[in-house]
Amino acid sequence: MRRHEATIGGDGAAAPWKEQQLASHRWPEAQEGAPAFPPSTMRRLVYSAANAALVVFIMTVPPMVVLYGARSSSPAVWISSANVGGRGSSSDESILLLHRPAAAHDKLLGGLLADGFDEGSCHSRYQSAMYRRNNAGKEPSPHLVSRLRRHEELQRRCGPGTAAYSNAVESLRSGKSGGIGSPPQTECRYLVSISYRGLGNRMLAAASAFLYAMLTDRVLLVDPSNEMGELFCEPFPGTTWLLPPGFPLTNFTSFSVDTTESYGNMLKNKVITTDAAAGDVPTPHQQLPAFAYIHLDHDYTFHDKFFFCDDDQSVLRNVPWLVMRTDSYIVPGLFLVTGFQAELDSLFPETDAVFHHLARYLFHPNNHIWGLVTRYYDAYLATARQRVGVQVRVFGARQESPKVLEQITACAHMENLLPDVITTGEPAATTRRRLKPKAVLVTSLTSWYYEKLKGMYWERATATGEAVGVHQPSHEEYQRFGSGSHDAKACAEIYLLSLSDALVTSGWSTFGYVAQGLAGLTPRVMYKPANESSAVPDPPCRRDVSMEPCFLTPPYNNCRMKRSAHSGKVVAHVKNCHDVPWGLKLVRRVE
Protein backbone atom coordinates (compact mmCIF):
# COMPACT_ATOMS: atom_id res chain seq x y z
CA MET A 1 0.00 0.00 0.00
CA ARG A 2 1.14 3.59 -0.54
CA ARG A 3 1.75 6.07 2.23
CA HIS A 4 0.13 9.49 2.22
CA GLU A 5 1.58 12.07 4.62
CA ALA A 6 -1.42 14.41 4.48
CA THR A 7 -4.81 13.95 6.02
CA ILE A 8 -7.83 13.63 3.80
CA GLY A 9 -10.20 16.58 3.65
CA GLY A 10 -13.92 16.84 3.17
CA ASP A 11 -16.14 13.96 4.26
CA GLY A 12 -13.15 11.68 4.46
CA ALA A 13 -11.29 13.85 6.95
CA ALA A 14 -9.62 11.95 9.74
CA ALA A 15 -10.90 12.56 13.22
CA PRO A 16 -8.55 14.75 15.28
CA TRP A 17 -6.25 12.74 17.52
CA LYS A 18 -6.21 13.33 21.24
CA GLU A 19 -3.00 12.32 22.93
CA GLN A 20 -4.69 11.41 26.17
CA GLN A 21 -7.11 9.22 24.22
CA LEU A 22 -4.19 7.56 22.46
CA ALA A 23 -2.33 6.84 25.67
CA SER A 24 -5.40 5.16 27.16
CA HIS A 25 -5.91 2.61 24.38
CA ARG A 26 -4.62 -0.87 25.09
CA TRP A 27 -4.52 -4.27 23.47
CA PRO A 28 -7.87 -6.04 23.37
CA GLU A 29 -8.42 -8.53 26.12
CA ALA A 30 -7.92 -11.55 23.85
CA GLN A 31 -4.29 -10.57 23.11
CA GLU A 32 -1.35 -11.36 25.36
CA GLY A 33 0.21 -8.30 26.98
CA ALA A 34 -1.28 -4.84 27.25
CA PRO A 35 1.16 -2.15 26.16
CA ALA A 36 0.08 1.47 26.39
CA PHE A 37 0.57 3.73 23.40
CA PRO A 38 2.75 6.74 24.34
CA PRO A 39 2.39 9.37 21.60
CA SER A 40 6.17 9.74 21.34
CA THR A 41 6.58 6.23 19.98
CA MET A 42 4.46 6.55 16.85
CA ARG A 43 3.97 8.36 13.57
CA ARG A 44 0.57 9.40 12.25
CA LEU A 45 -0.30 8.50 8.69
CA VAL A 46 -3.51 8.38 6.72
CA TYR A 47 -4.37 5.78 4.08
CA SER A 48 -7.22 6.07 1.64
CA ALA A 49 -8.59 3.13 -0.31
CA ALA A 50 -11.99 2.47 -1.86
CA ASN A 51 -13.32 5.76 -0.46
CA ALA A 52 -12.51 4.65 3.11
CA ALA A 53 -10.10 6.69 5.14
CA LEU A 54 -7.94 5.19 7.85
CA VAL A 55 -5.83 6.95 10.42
CA VAL A 56 -2.68 4.88 10.91
CA PHE A 57 -0.23 4.99 13.79
CA ILE A 58 3.08 3.16 13.30
CA MET A 59 4.49 2.08 16.63
CA THR A 60 8.27 2.03 16.95
CA VAL A 61 8.37 0.38 20.38
CA PRO A 62 7.05 -2.27 20.14
CA PRO A 63 6.82 -2.51 16.33
CA MET A 64 3.18 -2.51 15.35
CA VAL A 65 0.64 -0.55 13.36
CA VAL A 66 -2.75 0.56 14.64
CA LEU A 67 -5.42 1.53 12.11
CA TYR A 68 -8.33 3.74 13.08
CA GLY A 69 -11.43 4.49 11.05
CA ALA A 70 -11.52 8.10 9.98
CA ARG A 71 -14.59 8.79 12.10
CA SER A 72 -13.82 6.47 14.99
CA SER A 73 -11.66 6.61 18.08
CA SER A 74 -11.68 2.79 18.33
CA PRO A 75 -8.99 0.71 16.60
CA ALA A 76 -10.18 -0.91 13.39
CA VAL A 77 -7.19 -3.20 12.73
CA TRP A 78 -4.06 -4.12 14.66
CA ILE A 79 -0.94 -4.87 12.60
CA SER A 80 2.59 -5.90 13.49
CA SER A 81 5.52 -4.86 11.30
CA ALA A 82 7.23 -8.22 11.81
CA ASN A 83 8.84 -10.02 8.90
CA VAL A 84 6.52 -11.18 6.17
CA GLY A 85 7.80 -13.31 3.33
CA GLY A 86 11.41 -12.79 4.43
CA ARG A 87 11.33 -8.99 4.10
CA GLY A 88 12.80 -6.80 6.84
CA SER A 89 10.64 -5.31 9.51
CA SER A 90 11.72 -1.79 8.55
CA SER A 91 9.69 -1.90 5.35
CA ASP A 92 6.39 -0.06 5.51
CA GLU A 93 4.92 -2.77 3.31
CA SER A 94 6.01 -5.79 5.38
CA ILE A 95 3.08 -5.92 7.78
CA LEU A 96 1.22 -8.82 9.33
CA LEU A 97 -2.35 -8.67 10.58
CA LEU A 98 -2.47 -9.74 14.20
CA HIS A 99 -5.93 -8.99 15.43
CA ARG A 100 -9.18 -7.34 14.42
CA PRO A 101 -11.09 -6.40 17.54
CA ALA A 102 -14.77 -7.23 17.65
CA ALA A 103 -16.96 -4.40 16.47
CA ALA A 104 -18.59 -2.32 19.14
CA HIS A 105 -21.52 -4.31 20.43
CA ASP A 106 -24.82 -3.69 18.72
CA LYS A 107 -27.30 -3.61 21.57
CA LEU A 108 -30.24 -4.01 19.17
CA LEU A 109 -28.68 -7.08 17.52
CA GLY A 110 -29.03 -5.81 13.98
CA GLY A 111 -32.58 -4.56 14.55
CA LEU A 112 -33.78 -7.80 16.11
CA LEU A 113 -34.64 -5.97 19.34
CA ALA A 114 -36.90 -2.94 19.56
CA ASP A 115 -35.42 0.23 21.00
CA GLY A 116 -37.09 2.21 23.75
CA PHE A 117 -37.31 -0.28 26.64
CA ASP A 118 -36.37 0.95 30.10
CA GLU A 119 -32.83 -0.41 30.31
CA GLY A 120 -32.81 -0.33 34.10
CA SER A 121 -35.75 -2.73 34.33
CA CYS A 122 -34.01 -5.40 32.25
CA HIS A 123 -30.22 -5.12 32.06
CA SER A 124 -29.74 -8.26 29.98
CA ARG A 125 -31.77 -7.06 26.99
CA TYR A 126 -29.21 -4.54 25.79
CA GLN A 127 -26.10 -5.78 27.64
CA SER A 128 -25.89 -9.39 26.43
CA ALA A 129 -24.05 -8.46 23.23
CA MET A 130 -21.21 -6.99 25.30
CA TYR A 131 -20.37 -10.39 26.74
CA ARG A 132 -20.14 -12.39 23.52
CA ARG A 133 -16.82 -12.79 21.75
CA ASN A 134 -18.67 -14.62 19.02
CA ASN A 135 -19.94 -11.36 17.54
CA ALA A 136 -19.85 -12.70 14.02
CA GLY A 137 -23.36 -13.91 14.73
CA LYS A 138 -26.07 -14.29 12.16
CA GLU A 139 -27.78 -11.07 11.13
CA PRO A 140 -31.58 -11.03 11.11
CA SER A 141 -33.13 -10.51 7.71
CA PRO A 142 -34.85 -7.18 6.99
CA HIS A 143 -38.10 -9.08 6.59
CA LEU A 144 -37.75 -10.67 10.03
CA VAL A 145 -37.06 -7.26 11.59
CA SER A 146 -40.16 -5.85 9.85
CA ARG A 147 -42.36 -8.75 10.92
CA LEU A 148 -41.21 -8.46 14.52
CA ARG A 149 -42.18 -4.80 14.64
CA ARG A 150 -45.54 -5.70 13.08
CA HIS A 151 -46.11 -8.47 15.59
CA GLU A 152 -45.24 -6.17 18.48
CA GLU A 153 -47.97 -3.82 17.28
CA LEU A 154 -50.41 -6.75 17.15
CA GLN A 155 -49.53 -7.73 20.72
CA ARG A 156 -50.15 -4.15 21.87
CA ARG A 157 -53.41 -3.79 19.94
CA CYS A 158 -54.92 -7.12 20.96
CA GLY A 159 -53.09 -8.10 24.15
CA PRO A 160 -54.26 -8.11 27.76
CA GLY A 161 -55.77 -4.84 28.92
CA THR A 162 -57.27 -3.93 25.55
CA ALA A 163 -60.91 -3.87 24.49
CA ALA A 164 -60.11 -6.44 21.81
CA TYR A 165 -58.79 -8.88 24.42
CA SER A 166 -61.81 -8.38 26.66
CA ASN A 167 -64.15 -9.04 23.74
CA ALA A 168 -62.23 -12.17 22.75
CA VAL A 169 -62.36 -13.53 26.31
CA GLU A 170 -66.12 -12.92 26.46
CA SER A 171 -66.60 -14.73 23.14
CA LEU A 172 -64.55 -17.66 24.45
CA ARG A 173 -66.58 -17.73 27.65
CA SER A 174 -69.82 -17.81 25.66
CA GLY A 175 -68.50 -20.40 23.20
CA LYS A 176 -69.04 -18.22 20.14
CA SER A 177 -67.14 -18.89 16.93
CA GLY A 178 -67.95 -19.00 13.24
CA GLY A 179 -67.95 -21.26 10.22
CA ILE A 180 -64.92 -21.91 8.07
CA GLY A 181 -66.11 -19.40 5.51
CA SER A 182 -67.17 -16.83 8.09
CA PRO A 183 -64.91 -14.38 9.87
CA PRO A 184 -64.23 -15.10 13.55
CA GLN A 185 -66.48 -13.39 16.08
CA THR A 186 -63.49 -11.45 17.43
CA GLU A 187 -61.10 -9.13 15.61
CA CYS A 188 -58.01 -10.79 17.10
CA ARG A 189 -56.88 -14.39 17.39
CA TYR A 190 -54.83 -15.93 20.18
CA LEU A 191 -52.38 -18.71 20.95
CA VAL A 192 -51.89 -19.80 24.55
CA SER A 193 -48.68 -21.73 25.18
CA ILE A 194 -48.66 -24.14 28.12
CA SER A 195 -45.37 -24.08 30.05
CA TYR A 196 -44.20 -27.25 31.71
CA ARG A 197 -41.27 -29.62 32.24
CA GLY A 198 -37.67 -28.41 32.51
CA LEU A 199 -36.49 -24.94 31.62
CA GLY A 200 -34.95 -26.03 28.32
CA ASN A 201 -38.25 -27.61 27.27
CA ARG A 202 -40.17 -24.49 28.26
CA MET A 203 -37.89 -22.17 26.29
CA LEU A 204 -38.03 -24.36 23.18
CA ALA A 205 -41.81 -24.60 23.46
CA ALA A 206 -42.24 -20.83 23.87
CA ALA A 207 -39.96 -20.08 20.90
CA SER A 208 -41.90 -22.58 18.76
CA ALA A 209 -45.23 -21.09 19.80
CA PHE A 210 -43.99 -17.58 19.07
CA LEU A 211 -42.95 -18.45 15.53
CA TYR A 212 -46.29 -20.13 14.89
CA ALA A 213 -48.10 -17.09 16.32
CA MET A 214 -46.11 -14.79 14.05
CA LEU A 215 -46.80 -16.95 10.98
CA THR A 216 -50.55 -16.99 11.69
CA ASP A 217 -50.98 -13.45 13.07
CA ARG A 218 -51.98 -14.60 16.54
CA VAL A 219 -51.29 -12.92 19.85
CA LEU A 220 -48.96 -15.12 21.92
CA LEU A 221 -49.87 -15.56 25.58
CA VAL A 222 -47.63 -17.72 27.76
CA ASP A 223 -48.97 -19.69 30.69
CA PRO A 224 -47.41 -18.00 33.75
CA SER A 225 -47.87 -20.95 36.10
CA ASN A 226 -44.36 -22.34 35.56
CA GLU A 227 -42.33 -19.21 36.36
CA MET A 228 -41.74 -17.92 32.85
CA GLY A 229 -42.69 -14.46 34.09
CA GLU A 230 -40.36 -14.80 37.08
CA LEU A 231 -37.33 -15.71 34.97
CA PHE A 232 -37.54 -13.47 31.91
CA CYS A 233 -38.31 -9.87 31.10
CA GLU A 234 -41.24 -9.02 28.86
CA PRO A 235 -40.18 -9.41 25.22
CA PHE A 236 -42.84 -7.15 23.69
CA PRO A 237 -42.76 -3.39 24.30
CA GLY A 238 -45.80 -1.80 25.87
CA THR A 239 -47.66 -5.02 26.68
CA THR A 240 -47.32 -8.42 28.34
CA TRP A 241 -46.93 -11.91 26.93
CA LEU A 242 -48.25 -13.52 30.14
CA LEU A 243 -51.78 -14.87 30.24
CA PRO A 244 -53.69 -12.80 32.83
CA PRO A 245 -55.74 -14.30 35.66
CA GLY A 246 -59.39 -15.05 34.94
CA PHE A 247 -58.89 -17.08 31.75
CA PRO A 248 -62.20 -18.88 31.07
CA LEU A 249 -60.57 -22.28 30.42
CA THR A 250 -59.71 -22.76 34.07
CA ASN A 251 -58.34 -26.30 33.64
CA PHE A 252 -56.28 -25.69 30.48
CA THR A 253 -52.98 -26.63 32.15
CA SER A 254 -54.43 -30.14 32.63
CA PHE A 255 -55.26 -30.66 28.96
CA SER A 256 -53.79 -33.90 27.61
CA VAL A 257 -53.90 -36.29 24.69
CA ASP A 258 -57.35 -37.41 25.90
CA THR A 259 -58.92 -33.94 25.97
CA THR A 260 -62.12 -33.97 23.92
CA GLU A 261 -61.40 -30.54 22.44
CA SER A 262 -57.97 -31.52 21.14
CA TYR A 263 -57.67 -30.97 17.41
CA GLY A 264 -56.63 -34.59 16.89
CA ASN A 265 -59.67 -35.94 18.74
CA MET A 266 -62.00 -33.57 16.90
CA LEU A 267 -60.59 -34.86 13.59
CA LYS A 268 -60.85 -38.46 14.74
CA ASN A 269 -64.47 -37.98 15.88
CA LYS A 270 -65.45 -36.01 12.75
CA VAL A 271 -66.26 -32.89 14.72
CA ILE A 272 -63.97 -31.18 12.21
CA THR A 273 -63.45 -32.54 8.71
CA THR A 274 -60.56 -31.70 6.40
CA ASP A 275 -59.86 -34.91 4.52
CA ALA A 276 -60.45 -33.84 0.92
CA ALA A 277 -59.15 -37.20 -0.35
CA ALA A 278 -61.96 -38.96 1.52
CA GLY A 279 -64.57 -36.51 0.31
CA ASP A 280 -64.80 -34.64 3.60
CA VAL A 281 -64.40 -31.21 2.03
CA PRO A 282 -64.83 -28.37 4.54
CA THR A 283 -67.85 -26.23 3.86
CA PRO A 284 -68.54 -22.60 4.72
CA HIS A 285 -71.29 -23.81 7.04
CA GLN A 286 -69.17 -26.13 9.15
CA GLN A 287 -69.39 -24.87 12.71
CA LEU A 288 -66.02 -24.53 14.41
CA PRO A 289 -65.44 -24.50 18.15
CA ALA A 290 -64.51 -21.36 20.05
CA PHE A 291 -61.16 -22.95 20.85
CA ALA A 292 -59.05 -25.95 19.93
CA TYR A 293 -56.41 -27.65 22.02
CA ILE A 294 -53.24 -28.46 20.02
CA HIS A 295 -51.53 -31.46 21.59
CA LEU A 296 -47.95 -31.71 20.27
CA ASP A 297 -46.40 -33.43 23.26
CA HIS A 298 -44.21 -36.54 23.00
CA ASP A 299 -47.29 -38.81 23.16
CA TYR A 300 -49.28 -37.09 20.42
CA THR A 301 -51.34 -39.28 18.13
CA PHE A 302 -51.58 -39.91 14.40
CA HIS A 303 -54.45 -37.40 14.16
CA ASP A 304 -52.69 -34.77 16.29
CA LYS A 305 -49.80 -34.77 13.81
CA PHE A 306 -51.99 -33.43 11.01
CA PHE A 307 -51.44 -30.05 12.63
CA PHE A 308 -48.42 -29.92 10.30
CA CYS A 309 -50.59 -30.17 7.14
CA ASP A 310 -51.91 -27.36 4.93
CA ASP A 311 -55.58 -28.40 4.91
CA ASP A 312 -55.60 -28.52 8.68
CA GLN A 313 -53.93 -25.13 8.98
CA SER A 314 -56.65 -23.69 6.74
CA VAL A 315 -59.25 -24.85 9.25
CA LEU A 316 -57.32 -23.78 12.34
CA ARG A 317 -56.93 -20.29 10.88
CA ASN A 318 -60.60 -19.69 11.68
CA VAL A 319 -60.53 -20.90 15.28
CA PRO A 320 -60.19 -17.78 17.49
CA TRP A 321 -58.36 -19.43 20.39
CA LEU A 322 -55.72 -22.15 20.26
CA VAL A 323 -54.13 -23.69 23.35
CA MET A 324 -50.86 -25.51 22.59
CA ARG A 325 -48.89 -28.00 24.65
CA THR A 326 -45.48 -29.18 23.55
CA ASP A 327 -42.27 -30.09 25.33
CA SER A 328 -40.16 -29.90 22.20
CA TYR A 329 -38.87 -27.63 19.44
CA ILE A 330 -41.51 -28.05 16.72
CA VAL A 331 -40.09 -25.44 14.31
CA PRO A 332 -38.70 -28.01 11.81
CA GLY A 333 -42.26 -29.30 11.51
CA LEU A 334 -43.51 -25.81 10.57
CA PHE A 335 -41.05 -25.83 7.67
CA LEU A 336 -42.90 -28.88 6.32
CA VAL A 337 -46.15 -26.90 5.95
CA THR A 338 -46.25 -25.78 2.32
CA GLY A 339 -48.32 -22.71 3.12
CA PHE A 340 -45.65 -21.42 5.51
CA GLN A 341 -42.59 -22.10 3.38
CA ALA A 342 -42.44 -18.89 1.33
CA GLU A 343 -42.78 -16.72 4.43
CA LEU A 344 -40.25 -18.78 6.38
CA ASP A 345 -37.77 -18.49 3.50
CA SER A 346 -38.09 -14.70 3.63
CA LEU A 347 -37.88 -14.56 7.41
CA PHE A 348 -34.89 -16.89 7.69
CA PRO A 349 -32.62 -16.98 4.62
CA GLU A 350 -30.11 -18.70 6.90
CA THR A 351 -32.17 -21.70 7.91
CA ASP A 352 -29.62 -22.88 10.48
CA ALA A 353 -30.14 -19.77 12.63
CA VAL A 354 -33.89 -19.75 13.31
CA PHE A 355 -33.71 -20.49 17.02
CA HIS A 356 -30.66 -18.23 17.34
CA HIS A 357 -32.83 -15.27 16.33
CA LEU A 358 -35.98 -16.36 18.18
CA ALA A 359 -34.14 -16.99 21.45
CA ARG A 360 -32.16 -13.74 21.40
CA TYR A 361 -35.39 -11.86 20.74
CA LEU A 362 -37.59 -13.55 23.34
CA PHE A 363 -35.48 -14.56 26.32
CA HIS A 364 -33.92 -11.85 28.46
CA PRO A 365 -33.13 -12.98 32.02
CA ASN A 366 -34.38 -10.70 34.76
CA ASN A 367 -31.95 -8.52 36.67
CA HIS A 368 -31.39 -11.02 39.47
CA ILE A 369 -30.47 -13.83 37.07
CA TRP A 370 -28.41 -11.51 34.89
CA GLY A 371 -26.49 -10.54 38.03
CA LEU A 372 -25.72 -14.24 38.60
CA VAL A 373 -24.43 -14.45 35.04
CA THR A 374 -22.28 -11.33 35.01
CA ARG A 375 -20.76 -11.79 38.47
CA TYR A 376 -19.69 -15.33 37.68
CA TYR A 377 -18.43 -14.37 34.24
CA ASP A 378 -16.37 -11.46 35.56
CA ALA A 379 -14.89 -13.54 38.40
CA TYR A 380 -13.98 -16.72 36.51
CA LEU A 381 -14.31 -16.41 32.74
CA ALA A 382 -13.63 -12.86 31.55
CA THR A 383 -9.84 -13.07 31.38
CA ALA A 384 -9.58 -16.56 29.89
CA ARG A 385 -7.86 -16.97 26.56
CA GLN A 386 -10.56 -19.42 25.49
CA ARG A 387 -13.78 -20.52 27.13
CA VAL A 388 -14.90 -24.11 26.60
CA GLY A 389 -18.40 -25.03 27.77
CA VAL A 390 -19.04 -28.65 28.74
CA GLN A 391 -22.71 -29.47 29.29
CA VAL A 392 -23.24 -32.84 30.93
CA ARG A 393 -26.65 -34.50 31.01
CA VAL A 394 -26.83 -38.14 32.05
CA PHE A 395 -30.11 -39.93 31.39
CA GLY A 396 -30.48 -42.68 33.95
CA ALA A 397 -30.31 -43.35 37.66
CA ARG A 398 -26.50 -43.23 37.88
CA GLN A 399 -25.38 -39.64 37.41
CA GLU A 400 -21.67 -40.21 38.14
CA SER A 401 -20.37 -42.28 35.25
CA PRO A 402 -16.65 -42.90 34.60
CA LYS A 403 -17.56 -43.76 31.02
CA VAL A 404 -19.21 -40.39 30.50
CA LEU A 405 -16.13 -38.71 31.98
CA GLU A 406 -13.96 -40.69 29.55
CA GLN A 407 -16.25 -39.61 26.73
CA ILE A 408 -15.92 -35.95 27.71
CA THR A 409 -12.12 -36.01 27.84
CA ALA A 410 -11.83 -38.08 24.67
CA CYS A 411 -14.06 -35.63 22.81
CA ALA A 412 -12.26 -32.54 24.10
CA HIS A 413 -8.85 -33.97 23.18
CA MET A 414 -9.97 -35.25 19.78
CA GLU A 415 -11.40 -31.84 18.89
CA ASN A 416 -8.31 -29.99 20.24
CA LEU A 417 -10.42 -28.11 22.75
CA LEU A 418 -8.39 -29.19 25.79
CA PRO A 419 -4.73 -30.25 26.04
CA ASP A 420 -3.51 -33.67 27.11
CA VAL A 421 -1.81 -34.00 30.50
CA ILE A 422 1.64 -35.43 31.24
CA THR A 423 1.39 -38.61 33.27
CA THR A 424 4.86 -38.30 34.83
CA GLY A 425 7.19 -35.41 35.59
CA GLU A 426 6.90 -31.76 34.68
CA PRO A 427 7.45 -30.03 31.34
CA ALA A 428 10.77 -28.32 30.71
CA ALA A 429 10.85 -24.64 31.60
CA THR A 430 11.23 -23.78 27.92
CA THR A 431 7.90 -25.43 27.11
CA ARG A 432 5.92 -23.57 29.75
CA ARG A 433 3.82 -20.94 28.05
CA ARG A 434 2.90 -17.75 29.89
CA LEU A 435 -0.52 -17.55 28.35
CA LYS A 436 -3.80 -16.66 29.90
CA PRO A 437 -5.46 -19.93 30.92
CA LYS A 438 -8.22 -21.74 29.17
CA ALA A 439 -11.43 -21.75 31.17
CA VAL A 440 -13.67 -24.82 31.21
CA LEU A 441 -17.24 -24.19 32.33
CA VAL A 442 -18.96 -27.40 33.44
CA THR A 443 -22.72 -27.58 33.91
CA SER A 444 -24.15 -30.73 35.46
CA LEU A 445 -26.57 -31.74 38.18
CA THR A 446 -23.61 -33.33 40.00
CA SER A 447 -20.21 -31.88 40.90
CA TRP A 448 -18.42 -35.17 40.17
CA TYR A 449 -17.38 -34.35 36.59
CA TYR A 450 -16.16 -30.91 37.63
CA GLU A 451 -14.10 -32.35 40.48
CA LYS A 452 -12.51 -34.96 38.21
CA LEU A 453 -11.62 -32.46 35.48
CA LYS A 454 -10.34 -29.91 37.98
CA GLY A 455 -8.19 -32.52 39.69
CA MET A 456 -6.79 -33.75 36.39
CA TYR A 457 -5.55 -30.29 35.38
CA TRP A 458 -4.32 -29.35 38.86
CA GLU A 459 -2.47 -32.54 39.69
CA ARG A 460 -0.79 -32.93 36.30
CA ALA A 461 0.85 -30.53 33.91
CA THR A 462 -0.43 -30.15 30.36
CA ALA A 463 1.64 -31.34 27.42
CA THR A 464 1.41 -27.85 25.90
CA GLY A 465 2.46 -26.04 29.07
CA GLU A 466 -0.76 -24.02 29.21
CA ALA A 467 -2.94 -23.72 32.30
CA VAL A 468 -6.53 -24.90 32.40
CA GLY A 469 -9.04 -23.63 34.94
CA VAL A 470 -12.22 -25.65 35.56
CA HIS A 471 -15.35 -24.03 36.99
CA GLN A 472 -18.90 -25.04 37.87
CA PRO A 473 -21.47 -22.51 39.14
CA SER A 474 -23.85 -24.96 40.87
CA HIS A 475 -24.78 -28.61 41.30
CA GLU A 476 -28.37 -29.25 42.30
CA GLU A 477 -27.94 -33.09 42.32
CA TYR A 478 -31.35 -33.69 40.73
CA GLN A 479 -33.83 -31.75 38.62
CA ARG A 480 -36.30 -29.85 40.80
CA PHE A 481 -39.47 -29.08 38.85
CA GLY A 482 -41.33 -26.03 40.12
CA SER A 483 -38.43 -24.65 42.18
CA GLY A 484 -37.79 -20.97 41.49
CA SER A 485 -34.25 -21.06 42.86
CA HIS A 486 -33.39 -24.14 40.79
CA ASP A 487 -34.77 -22.57 37.62
CA ALA A 488 -32.92 -19.29 38.25
CA LYS A 489 -29.60 -21.15 38.51
CA ALA A 490 -30.43 -23.24 35.45
CA CYS A 491 -31.22 -20.09 33.47
CA ALA A 492 -27.96 -18.46 34.57
CA GLU A 493 -25.98 -21.55 33.57
CA ILE A 494 -27.61 -21.70 30.14
CA TYR A 495 -26.52 -18.11 29.53
CA LEU A 496 -23.02 -18.72 30.89
CA LEU A 497 -22.67 -21.68 28.53
CA SER A 498 -23.82 -19.46 25.69
CA LEU A 499 -20.85 -17.14 26.34
CA SER A 500 -18.41 -19.94 25.47
CA ASP A 501 -16.08 -19.94 22.49
CA ALA A 502 -16.67 -23.67 21.94
CA LEU A 503 -19.28 -26.08 23.26
CA VAL A 504 -19.39 -29.79 24.06
CA THR A 505 -22.97 -30.85 24.72
CA SER A 506 -24.86 -34.02 25.60
CA GLY A 507 -27.11 -35.49 22.95
CA TRP A 508 -30.87 -35.34 23.54
CA SER A 509 -30.51 -32.46 26.03
CA THR A 510 -32.83 -29.48 25.59
CA PHE A 511 -30.61 -27.56 28.04
CA GLY A 512 -27.71 -27.87 25.61
CA TYR A 513 -29.94 -27.08 22.63
CA VAL A 514 -30.91 -23.71 24.13
CA ALA A 515 -27.33 -22.81 25.08
CA GLN A 516 -25.93 -23.54 21.61
CA GLY A 517 -28.73 -21.58 19.94
CA LEU A 518 -28.21 -18.52 22.12
CA ALA A 519 -24.46 -18.74 21.53
CA GLY A 520 -24.76 -19.11 17.77
CA LEU A 521 -22.30 -22.03 18.00
CA THR A 522 -22.45 -25.43 16.36
CA PRO A 523 -21.45 -27.76 19.20
CA ARG A 524 -19.54 -30.99 19.45
CA VAL A 525 -22.34 -33.27 20.54
CA MET A 526 -21.64 -36.39 22.60
CA TYR A 527 -23.62 -39.42 21.60
CA LYS A 528 -25.90 -40.96 24.20
CA PRO A 529 -24.68 -44.48 25.11
CA ALA A 530 -27.20 -47.23 24.47
CA ASN A 531 -27.15 -48.13 28.19
CA GLU A 532 -25.01 -47.75 31.30
CA SER A 533 -22.94 -50.85 30.47
CA SER A 534 -22.18 -49.74 26.90
CA ALA A 535 -18.65 -48.83 25.87
CA VAL A 536 -17.72 -45.21 25.22
CA PRO A 537 -19.02 -44.37 21.73
CA ASP A 538 -16.41 -44.26 18.99
CA PRO A 539 -16.03 -41.50 17.99
CA PRO A 540 -16.99 -39.98 21.36
CA CYS A 541 -18.57 -36.91 19.76
CA ARG A 542 -19.20 -35.26 16.43
CA ARG A 543 -19.51 -31.72 15.20
CA ASP A 544 -23.25 -31.21 14.80
CA VAL A 545 -24.76 -30.34 11.43
CA SER A 546 -26.07 -26.99 12.72
CA MET A 547 -26.68 -24.93 15.84
CA GLU A 548 -30.43 -25.62 15.64
CA PRO A 549 -32.20 -27.71 18.29
CA CYS A 550 -33.53 -31.13 17.36
CA PHE A 551 -37.26 -31.78 17.08
CA LEU A 552 -37.20 -34.99 19.13
CA THR A 553 -40.67 -36.31 18.21
CA PRO A 554 -41.44 -35.13 14.67
CA PRO A 555 -44.48 -36.09 12.60
CA TYR A 556 -44.11 -38.84 10.03
CA ASN A 557 -47.19 -38.13 7.98
CA ASN A 558 -48.01 -37.80 4.31
CA CYS A 559 -50.54 -34.99 4.46
CA ARG A 560 -52.08 -35.61 1.05
CA MET A 561 -52.50 -39.37 1.50
CA LYS A 562 -53.12 -39.19 5.24
CA ARG A 563 -50.60 -41.92 6.00
CA SER A 564 -47.13 -42.28 7.46
CA ALA A 565 -44.14 -40.90 5.56
CA HIS A 566 -40.48 -39.96 6.17
CA SER A 567 -40.54 -36.26 7.12
CA GLY A 568 -36.74 -36.00 6.90
CA LYS A 569 -36.89 -36.29 3.11
CA VAL A 570 -39.56 -33.67 2.35
CA VAL A 571 -37.58 -30.40 2.53
CA ALA A 572 -33.87 -30.18 1.66
CA HIS A 573 -32.92 -28.13 4.72
CA VAL A 574 -34.82 -30.34 7.20
CA LYS A 575 -32.64 -33.35 8.02
CA ASN A 576 -32.43 -36.04 10.65
CA CYS A 577 -30.47 -35.22 13.80
CA HIS A 578 -27.10 -36.73 14.66
CA ASP A 579 -27.93 -37.33 18.30
CA VAL A 580 -31.52 -38.51 17.75
CA PRO A 581 -31.63 -40.32 14.39
CA TRP A 582 -35.41 -40.10 14.03
CA GLY A 583 -35.52 -36.42 15.07
CA LEU A 584 -35.57 -33.48 12.66
CA LYS A 585 -33.23 -30.51 12.53
CA LEU A 586 -32.91 -27.41 10.36
CA VAL A 587 -29.61 -27.16 8.51
CA ARG A 588 -28.10 -24.52 6.27
CA ARG A 589 -29.96 -24.16 3.00
CA VAL A 590 -27.88 -25.18 -0.01
CA GLU A 591 -28.57 -22.86 -2.92
TrEMBL record:
Keywords: Cell wall biogenesis/degradation, Glycoprotein, Glycosyltransferase, Golgi apparatus, Membrane, Transferase, Transmembrane, Transmembrane helix. The chain crosses the membrane at residues 45-70. The keyword Hydrolase does not apply. GO terms for molecular function: galactoside 2-alpha-L-fucosyltransferase activity. It is a single-pass type II membrane protein. Its EC number is 2.4.1.-. InterPro entries: XG_FTase (IPR004938). GO terms for biological process: cell wall biogenesis; cell wall organization; xyloglucan biosynthetic process. Its main location: Golgi. It holds the Pfam family XG_FTase. One of its GO terms (cellular component) is Golgi cisterna membrane. Residues 1-35 are annotated as: Disordered. It comes from the Eukaryota. It is found in: Golgi apparatus, Golgi stack membrane. It is an enzyme of class 2 (transferase). Belongs to the glycosyltransferase 37 family. May be involved in cell wall biosynthesis. This is Fucosyltransferase. It comes from Oryza sativa subsp. japonica.
